[in-house]
Amino acid sequence: MTPFQASGAGQAIEDALILSTLLGNPKTSLHNVHTALEVYDEIRRPFALDIQERSRLNGQQASLWKEDDLENLDRNHVGSLEWGLCFFLLWEVWTDDDGVVLIAWTTTIDSMVKDAVGLLEEKLA
Q: 19 with 40: CB under 8 angstroms?
């Protein structure tokens, strides 16, 4: 996870909540703990990958580098670019096609916990 969204600690707390909820579920036992872990992965991975990708893009745009020209980056030139251009580039990373701002903190963990418990109980039924 790159550090350009400042969401790593928050994600760790969310991960702990979902994982402890699944492992502490009365239907979870030593014989089916693998199912609880699969549910955790199924619920959390898409969100985590999205945050990871946006964080990577955020860092890329904030430092104005592209992966193919990173070696040719002139850090002195980057520092002279106007803030308006930087903000415009970041705004494209932070918004979806409809202009809705995509930040980690607009989500809630409640629905994810509910989905995880529902999926676990469905798989263990």
A: yes
Cα–Cα distance measured from residue 104 to residue 75, given in angstroms and rounded to the nearest whole number: 29
pTM above 0.85, yes or no: no
Q: What span, in angstroms and rounded, lies between the C-alpha atoms of 25 and 12?
A: 20
Q: What is the pLDDT of residues 50-103, one digit of tens each?
A: 888 777 777 776 665 555 444 554 444 444 444 444 444 454 555 666 666 565
Phi, psi dihedral angles at 101 (to 5 degrees): -70, 130
- Name the token pair of 66: 């592209």
Listed by start position, the domains of the chain span 8-124
How far out from the chain centre does Cα 9 lie?
11
d(CA 69, CA 85) in angstroms, rounded, equals 19
Q: Tell me the C-alpha distance between 44 and 67, whole Å.
A: 27
